[in-house]
Design brief:
Blueprint: H1 15-36, H2 47-60, H3 63-85, H4 91-111, H5 118-130, H6 136-157, H7 162-167, H8 174-188, H9 192-210, H10 213-219, H11 221-251, H12 260-294, H13 296-299, H14 303-310, H15 312-330, H16 338-362, H17 367-376, E1 390-392, E2 397-399
Antiparallel strand pairs: 1-2
Length: about 400
C-alpha cells in the first residue's frame, strides 16, 4: 500500500547534516567575501592580508563546495530511503525539486550573482535519479568512469572557455551587471568539467550514505576518532607536499616538451592527489563537528550553526541579495582585500546566525525552503510553528512547540 510522500518533520531531521551543511555554507560565504571579489592584479597584500589569505587557500578554498555537494548526495539517499519506507516513488517529488532548483538558480545567476551553484545542482542531480538503484560497487564503477575516462576526454577534446569567462569584469551599473551575468552564464556553463566533478561528489555522498559509512560516523565514537586521527596525520603530511614541494616540481615542467601520454599521466596523478586532499579535509571537518555535536558541553553552542544550515538555501540566496547590491553601490567588485573581506564575512555571518536562530524559533523552514518545498510537494507547506498547546486538526492532537535544533 503506497502513501503520499511528505517532507521530513522537524523532529526527524538529521541535525548532524544541518551542522555540516551550515559549516560548509559558512566556508562558501568566507570565500565569496575574501577571495571571489579579491583585488585585481597589481594589488600587493599586506602582512595581515597574507595571514588571512594563506590559511584560506590551504584550509578552506575548494573543499567547502565539495562538502556541500557530498551533503547533497547524502541527503538524496535519506530521501530515497524515506520514499522506500512509504512504499512510494521518489522520482516525481525529487524531479520537481530539481526543476525548482533550476528555476531559482537561473534567476539567481542572471539577476544576482554569477557564483550560482543551484543550476549545477539541478542538472547534475538528474543523474542521481538514474543511478538511484545502483549498488555501492556500481557507484564506484560509475565514479571511476567519470574520473578516469570522461574527465580526460573533456579536458583534451573540448575547447577550454574558462579563460574567456575569467577575463570578464563585473561592471558597477546594474543593467550592465545583468548583461555581464548573462555573458558569464553562457561561458561558465560550457565548462563541462564542473558538471563532471559535481556529479562525482554527488555520487560519492550517495555512496557514503548508502554504504552506511555516514551513519557509522555519527554513531560509532571509536570509528570517528580513528578517522579524525588519520585525517590529522594525512593533513600534516599533505599540506607541505601539495602546496610547496609538488607545486615547485610542476612549475619546472614545460607541457610542450612532454609527450602526450606523459601529460595525461601527470594530470591524472595530480587530480587524484587533489581529490584525496579534498576528501581528507572534508573528513577532518566532519569528524570534528560531529564529535562536538555528540558532546554535551558543545552541543548547545552549535544550535545557531544548525539553524543556519537548516535554512541553507535561504541563507545562500540572502548572501547574494545583501552583498551584490553592496558591491554595486560601493564599487567593490574586484577591489576587496582579504582583510576587508574577513571583516565583511564576520559581519554577514554573525547577522545570519542571529537571523537563522530567530527565524527557526518561529518557523519550521527558511523562506526560500518554503517556496521550494511547496513546489516540490505540489502543496503549500505549513511554515509557522504551532503556538503552545495548539490543536492540530490534521493529527487530531494538541501540539507543543519544540524549537530545538539538536
Amino acid at each position: 500500500m503506497s502513501t503520499t510522500l511528505q517532507p521530513l518533520s522537524a523532529s526527524n531531521r538529521d541535525r548532524s547534516l544541518d551542522i555540516l551543511r551550515g559549516f560548509a555554507l559558512a566556508g562558501v560565504l568566507f570565500i565569496f567575501c575574501v577571495s571571489d571579489n579579491g583585488p585585481s592584479y597589481g594589488y600587493t597584500n599586506s602582512l595581515l592580508d597574507d595571514i588571512i589569505a594563506w590559511p584560506k587557500y590551504i584550509l578552506i578554498e575548494s573543499r567547502m563546495y565539495t562538502m556541500l555537494i557530498i551533503i547533497f548526495g547524502i541527503g538524496f539517499h535519506v530521501q530515497l530511503e524515506k520514499a522506500k519506507s512509504h512504499a512510494t516513488s521518489l522520482v516525481p517529488v525529487f524531479s520537481r525539486r530539481l526543476i525548482g532548483l533550476l528555476v531559482l538558480g537561473f534567476i539567481h545567476a542572471i539577476l544576482l550573482s554569477n557564483r550560482d551553484i543551484l543550476m549545477f545542482y539541478a542538472i547534475a542531480g538528474v543523474v542521481l535519479l538514474l543511478v538511484r538503484k545502483a549498488t555501492v560497487r556500481q557507484l564506484l564503477l560509475f565514479m571511476g568512469i567519470l574520473f578516469f575516462i570522461v574527465t580526460p576526454l573533456i579536458q583534451y577534446n573540448v575547447p577550454n572557455v574558462w579563460p574567456k569567462a575569467a577575463a570578464l569584469v563585473e561592471p558597477n551599473d546594474y543593467p550592465d551587471y545583468v548583461q555581464f551575468n548573462w555573458q558569464w552564464f553562457k561561458l561558465y556553463h560550457q565548462v563541462y568539467g564542473i558538471y563532471i566533478e559535481m556529479l562525482f561528489h554527488f555520487m560519492l555522498g550517495f555512496m557514503i550514505s548508502k554504504s552506511g559509512l555516514y551513519q557509522k560516523l555519527k554513531t560509532n565514537k571509536l570509528f570517528r576518532k580513528k578517522l579524525m586521527i588519520i585525517s590529522v596525520v594525512s593533513s600534516i603530511i599533505m599540506i607541505p607536499f601539495v602546496y610547496f614541494w609538488l607545486e615547485n616540481i610542476l612549475s619546472t615542467l614545460n607541457p610542450k616538451t612532454l609527450k602526450f601520454p606523459i601529460r595525461v599521466l601527470i594530470s591524472l596523478g595530480y587530480r587524484s592527489l587533489w581529490q584525496i586532499w579534498m576528501l581528507v579535509s572534508v573528513t577532518l571537518y566532519a569528524t570534528i563537528l560531529i564529535s562536538l555535536k555528540s558532546s554535551g558541553k558543545w552541543k548547545r553552542s552549535l544550535l545557531p550553526l544548525a539553524a543556519f544550515g537548516q535554512m541553507a538555501l535561504s541563507n545562500y540566496l540572502i548572501q547574494s541579495l545583501v552583498l551584490v547590491p553592496y558591491f554595486l553601490l560601493t564599487n567593490k567588485f574586484r577591489s576587496v582585500a582579504p582583510t576587508e573581506g574577513l571583516i565583511m564575512f564576520v559581519i554577514v555571518f554573525v547577522l545570519q546566525l542571529v537571523f537563522s536562530t530567530w527565524w527557526m524559533k518561529k518557523y519550521t523552514m527558511g523562506p526560500f525552503e518554503w517556496v521550494l518545498r511547496s513546489f516540490t510537494y505540489w502543496k503549500w507547506q505549513k511554515i509557522k510553528r504551532p503556538s503552545e498547546h495548539q490543536f492540530d486538526n490534521e493529527k487530531q492532537m494538541i501540539t507543543i512547540p519544540t524549537p530545538q535544533y539538536l
